[in-house]
Design a protein that fits this description.
A hairpin with an 8-residue loop joins β8 and β9. With 373 residues, the chain is α+β, with helices and mostly antiparallel strands. The radius of gyration is 26 Å and the shape is elongated. The strands form two sheets. Strands 3-2-1-4-5-6 form a six-stranded mixed β-sheet, sandwiched between helices. Strands 7-8-9 form a three-stranded antiparallel β-sheet. It folds into three domains: 94 residues, 434 Repressor (Amino-terminal Domain) (Orthogonal Bundle), CATH 1.10.260.40; 189 residues, Endonuclease, Chain A; 59 residues, no CATH class.
Length: 373
């Protein structure tokens, strides 16, 4: 069984390495680097114990390098590269890895969680207040990192955002781990960073929902006390089947592997998934919230809404504006909704309706169902 898991891990790492070397972008996963190190060690005919003796370090450390669980120093990589006859391949690969992880800029208790999340094959999240890290849009994450900062350092904020996006990469890979996020409805209705940022965040969630390994469901507000817990929590499943339960308080993170607690929260999570909206209904609710954000965006003068092309009737809209409604139906530019304005007041309020509702209205109006000549 152990050999099968080892072969599976090695195969996943090999594919990660091949993906990273086939892209024009200078990136590589830690798993890809680990596979390359293991490849050169095997090619040199050395066991982990033999290699560790030659570089004067503990065998467990070399093993963790190969598993992508530990970051080697550049000096160590240069010694390994020379010893294994890898030319500069190991060194070049090392410089292509985004070693900087989000956990490194947070307290130790979160670093422990971030390290375990990187190795999990399944991540189940329940969030009551905010969209969790793996599902955050860049601008949403930046707004959260700026929260409570009187004079935030732009460089520090940029580093934190980059680290969070790095944390998301493994979930976006073709063979990425399974990620299920159940969000309390409050999390998608709480505006973070203003209406434009929140709109982009919700659009990002809808994009993630199209990925085969990612599931997003909304727990509606009417569930009330039937939700499983008063705080957010995460269930992690590791490659060896071990499971972890993680939650956070104000200034601490809490882990447990107690089977009784794991089973209790797992059953609660399963019940919640049954009570939550389906994926399709969740996507529809997210779209509805997005539509509600468009009018606030218009009031704040969002450039993407200010210069849209509205359809103008040649026969009814004269030079004085006429007495018509004018739609803007370029959904790509109008954030997926139809915008409607009064032709007599083109700079006035703009209504938002769904494409389905507009199509039904246009069909009814065109067929004379409203009794208007």
């Amino acid at each position: 069984m152990h050999c099968q898991e080892q072969r599976k891990r090695s195969e996943l790492a090999r594919r990660a390495f091949e993906r990273s070397t086939s892209t024009p972008q200078p990136n590589m996963t830690q798993a890809g680097f680990g596979w390359l190190l293991e490849h050169f060690r095997a090619k040199a005919g050395l066991s982990i114990a033999e290699l560790s003796r030659k570089v004067n370090c503990d065998a467990s450390l070399v093993s963790r390098f190969e598993k992508g669980e530990r970051v080697p120093s550049i000096d160590m990589v240069e010694r390994l590269s020379q010893l294994l006859g890898a030319d500069r391949l190991l060194i070049d690969a090392y410089h292509r890895v985004s070693w900087y992880q989000e956990g490194e800029i947070h307290p130790k208790w979160f670093r422990v969680y971030a390290g375990r999340e990187r190795l999990a094959v399944e991540v189940l999240k329940y969030s009551i207040a905010l969209v969790p890290g793996p599902g955050q849009h860049r601008d949403y994450a930046e707004a959260l990192f700026r929260r409570g900062e009187v004079d935030p350092d732009p460089a520090v904020i940029a580093e934190k955002v980059a680290a969070r996006l790095t944390r998301q990469e493994r979930f976006l890979a073709d063979d990425g781990p399974r990620l299920v996020m159940i969000l309390d409805e409050a999390a998608i209705r709480r505006t973070v960073g203003g209406p434009q940022v929140m709109h982009r965040q919700l659009a990002h969630l809808r994009h993630l929902m199209r990925r085969p390994n990612i599931v997003v469901q909304i727990a509606p507000l009417e569930l009330g006390e039937r939700t499983p817990a008063a705080s957010s929590f995460t269930l992690l499943t590791m490659s060896d089947g071990e499971r972890h339960l993680y939650s956070e308080s104000l200034n601490s993170g809490h882990f447990t592997t107690d089977p009784r607690e794991i089973n209790r929260f797992s059953r609660a999570y399963d019940r919640l998934r049954g009570s939550a909206l389906s994926v399709a209904d969740s996507a529809a609710l997210i779209r509805s919230v997005m539509e509600g954000l468009v009018n606030p965006m218009q009031r704040t003068g969002a450039p993407s809404l200010r210069h849209l092309a509205y359809f103008k009737s040649a026969s009814y809209s004269d030079s004085n504006g006429g007495d018509c409604v004018q739609p803007a139906i370029n959904l790509a530019e109008s954030h997926g909704v139809v915008l409607v304005r009064d032709s007599k007041d083109p700079n006035g309020p703009v209504l938002t309706v769904s494409p389905t509702a507009w199509a039904a209205f246009a069909e009814a109006a065109g067929s004379g169902k409203f009794g208007i000549a």
